[in-house]
Write a structure and sequence with these properties.
Layout lengths: L3 E4 L14 E5 L2 H5 L2 E4 L10 E4 L3 E4 L3 H9 L3
Antiparallel strand pairs: 1-2, 1-5, 2-3, 3-4
């Protein structure tokens, strides 16, 4: 799974997710086994992220420069 995903559906979480926005994921094998992803969402108060259905996102590959920029904003 990619370290980054793009939100394609926020019907059940419009306050926490923005359709079309790129989000960082955190590894969570147990969540993945249940078709869920651990995502750093708009709240950002929970450093461990929140669980969302994987169907709400599409994995994406980003250029290294974009990855570095997005990871720098997480600090």
């Amino acid at each position: 799974m990619s370290n980054f995903v793009i939100c394609i559906n926020n019907d059940s979480n419009p306050a926490s997710l923005i359709v079309g926005k790129v989000y960082r994921t955190l590894p969570d094998k147990e969540a993945e086994a249940h078709n869920m992803l651990r995502v750093i969402d708009e709240d950002k108060s929970e450093s461990d992220g929140y669980l969302y259905p994987a169907s709400m996102f599409a994995p994406i590959e980003l250029p290294e420069v974009a990855k570095r920029a997005l990871l720098a904003t997480d600090d």
